[in-house]
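lol so apparently i was supposed to do this last week
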Amino acid sequence: MQDRTFTADAEPGDHATVAGWVHEIRDLGGIAFLILRDKTGKIQVKFEKDEMDDDLVETGLGAHRESVVQVTGDVEEEERAPTGVEVTPESMQVLADADPELPLDPSGKVDADLSTRLDNRTLDARKPETKAVFEIRAEVLRAVREYFRSVGSTEINTPKIVATGTEGGTELFPVTYFGREAFMNQSPQLFKQLMVGSGLERVFEVGPIFRAEEHNTPRHLNEATMIDFESAFIDHEEAMDVCEGTLKAAYSAVEEHCQEELEILGIADEFEAPTDDFPRLTYEEAIERINATGELDEQLVWGDDLPTEGEKALGDDVGGHYFVTDWPSEIKPFYIQDYDDDPDLSKGFDLMHPRMELVSGGQREHRYDALVEGFEQQGLDPDQFEYYTKMFRYGMPPHAGWAYGVERLVMTMLDLDNIREAVLFPRDRQRLSP
Ligand code: ATP
Ligand code: AMO
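anyway here it is w/ aspartyl-adenosine-5'-monophosphate bound
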């Protein structure tokens, strides 16, 4: 709107037009106050019934909560007003009336369950706590992009409708593509690898991935956002350095730029950007430490994937972010390189938060023959992946990379109970709209 002043910018002495939502109306008899809220805060609008035009008073006090209104008047200092200033209106318009029956209370006085919140995200995200989560999520992505820029990585976008899957452990969503079988992509994996062999060399992508996960858990989504990184001429150790740098950059940016949001979420005091090096445990050390905690009913043996309970026990034991390296080859995907002197051991890694896995990555198999052999070992038909393997015959450099789930990063950073709180419009087994 042309001459709109944000409430936070309204200064005593201004003649201003403010616009926003009716947060609250307090009618004290001869005087009444409308608290108007916009993205920057709130401002008090004063109605002195005997001194003002009746229509104006009627418009002001008749507006339903959460209606959108615009008020023009003088801004004056008023120490009794919540923000120390108030507007004395000359005119007021209701731009959009709100139904008096609201499905949830944006003032937060009445709690709503997560499902009601997700059904009414517009109203839910008027609450400072919800808004804070998404302001912080945006800051995380901004910081991550800036960090990638500092390490010379180019942002790319890869297709989301694809012919083949890559991540074995999870199902694909089929789509019909002009009568042909196609799928929603589970990961930019193969495309980002194809680009490290291009003149770009070092790339990243922030984009959606789709997984027909069977389980309905507080940490899985069927559509998630991934931060993918891939670089030529680095190994898995250097890839872990970049991964750690990305996480530290995201935390530092939030610490530096989002104090207000952290306070709204009630975590400003304990929020700390990690600065120490993240421990790098081998898979073997990880299972030994998990077994030593005695938290699992059955001892883990070499070749087992780390169960959720085991990850939690180890997370409590380590007490911060850490990497798990040198995984058994058989539980890592075909594109991960194995150690030449021990083919049962891979150069894959995971970055863990004490609560859950945040990242998977590794050094990739860039040698054509070994790559094709890996497909066969995992029961995949290399012919189907010819568009990918073919490029490994034309000069594919050694390379490594990884991927974060953005929602898990935000969820663990802000200690949210459910991953759905970190995505505006989550997709899960039950939820396809809004
Ligand atoms: P009337 O005398 O017509 O009945 P009133 O008693 O409702 O009017 P006031 O006595 O002016 O109105 O104020 C009522 C309450 O509102 C008081 O507690 C006063 O401190 C508070 N109040 C008055 N003006 C403001 C203002 N501009 N901002 C915040 N609070 C105010
Ligand atoms: P992976 O399958 O481990 O690896 O996924 C990487 C990270 O993405 C997040 N994630 C999810 N988040 C929410 N809901 C889901 N259903 C979901 N699935 C995955 C997790 C996980 O750690 N191509 C490899 C990465 C690579 O090697 O570069 C891959 O996709 O945080």
